[in-house]
Amino acid sequence: MNELVQLSLSDARDGLAKGDFSAVELTQAHVHAMEAHRDLNAYITEVPDLALERAKEADHNLGRGEAGALEGLPLGIKDLFCTEGILTTAASHILDGFTPPYESFVTANLKAAGAVTLGKTNLDEFAMGSSNESSYYGPAHNPWKRAGDPSHLVPGGSSGGSAAAVAARMCLAATGTDTGGSIRQPASFCGIVGMKPTYGRCSRWGIVAFSSSLDQAGPMTRTVRDSAMLLSVMAGHDPKDSTSADMPVPDFEAALTGDIKGLRIGIPAEYRLAELNADVAALWGKGINWLKDAGAEIIDIALPHTKYALPTYYIVAPAEASSNLARYDGVRFGLRVDGDSLDDMYTKTRAAGFGAEVKRRIFIGTYALSAGYYDAYYLKAQKVRQLIYQDFASAFENVDAILTPTTPTPAFPLGENSSDPVAMYLNDVFTVPASLAGIPGISVPAGLSGDGLPLGLQLLTKRWDEETLFRVAGVLEEAAGFTGHPLEGEG
Ligand code: GLN
Hints:
- By secondary structure, this protein is of the alpha/beta class.
- Helix content is 36%, strand content 12%.
C-alpha cells in the first residue's frame, strides 16, 4: 500500500505545503486504494478523472502560494450531499439518475477550500439504518474482521461507506450526516473518529432531508485533529437554511491544547445498561481512568429521561421523514414508473422506488402525524424531547463534558439484525439522546474488543461548545493510543 494513504489529513496538508509530494501524487494514491478495495462497496460513485483534474489545479494553487485550508486533500463525500454534476442517490432506487444542478452548502465550502472529491460513499437508504444494509446499492462492508473469522461485518450506518472508506485508507477523510447516530456509530464500528456538531452548526442546504429537526453534517476522520480541521471548513452560517446558526466558526484545531486539568467529566448512571457488552463496559472504565489521570474530575450524573430517548426518536424521525419523502412522486426527481392515471403513477413509482425500511418509516410517520393521533404521538414525543434536553442542560450546570460508550456492542455480522428492526434500533441507544437534545458529540476509537474489533467512546458537551469537546477528545485519543489498522498485512 502506498504510504501517502497512511497520512492523516493534517499531515497530508503539511506535506503538501512543504512540497514533500504533489496533490496529484496524493490523489493518485487514493484512486488506487479506491480501486483496490472495491470489494468493500464503500463508494457508490467514483470520480477519479474529476479528482485528478482538481488535484492538478490544487498543485497550481499550492505552487503560487494560494492554497485553501484543504487544498489538494482527497475526500469521500456521503452520497446524501448534493454535488453539482455528480450523481446523487441517497442510496435509493427512487433517485435513479438524479444529477443535481447545485452543490450543498457544506460541499461547496469544501470545494472552495480546495478539497478534492474522490467519489460518493455508500449509506443506508435515505440514511435510515445502522448497518448500511438498507442501501439499494448493496451493503458496504467493514474493513475489520474478528480475529480468525472470515465473516463480513457491517460498517455501521448510516454513514457506513464513509466510515469504511476512511478506515481502509480509500480517502483521507469523509463527510457524514448524523440524525440519531449515523456518524458516531459507524465511526465506532470502523475504528475512526466521528463527530456530530451542535444542531445548526453546519447548513443542511443541499443535503437530502431525512428528519429536518435532527439531521446534522459532520466530519469522519482518523484523528481528532483532522476532525477539528475539517469541521472548521464544513461549518458556517447559511441564509438558505433557517436553522443554521449565525455564529462565528472558531478555529477548532486551536482548541486542542492537550490540557484538561480541572475539567469536570460526567458519567451518567443511566447508560450502564444490563445488555452492555463486557468489553465495552471495561473500556468505559478505562476511559474514566485516563481522563482522571489527565487531571479531570469525575462526577456521577443523572440523565433520568434517557430510557425514553429511543421511543421518542422513533416517533419524531419517521414523522419528519414521512413528510420530507412526500416529494418523491415520479415527477420531479429520478425514477418514474408509468401508470394508468396520475395517482397510479405516484403509487407505482413509490412502491418500486422505496425499500422496506423507508416504507416502514413512512407508514409509522404518517400514522403518528394523522389527525386522530398527532397529539398522542408527535406532540407527546416533542414534549419528552424537551425533558431529555433539560436533563442535559441540568447536567451541564455541574460538568463540562460527559463520557459514555458510543455503542452497546462492537460491529456485528451482515444479516444479524436485519430481520428485527427493534434490535437494529437499539444500536443507537447511546447516540440518540444527544441528537434529540441538539448537543455535539464525538466518538473516539479507544480500544479493541476481545475478538479484535474497534470500540469507540463518546464525549458530549453543551450546545456550541465543540471546543471543549475537541479538547477532551484529543486527550482521550492520546491516552488510548489507538493505532489499529484493519488491513494490516495487506500489500
Ligand atoms: N440508525 C438511526 C436510524 O436508523 C440513525 C440514522 C441516522 O443518524 N441517519 O434512524
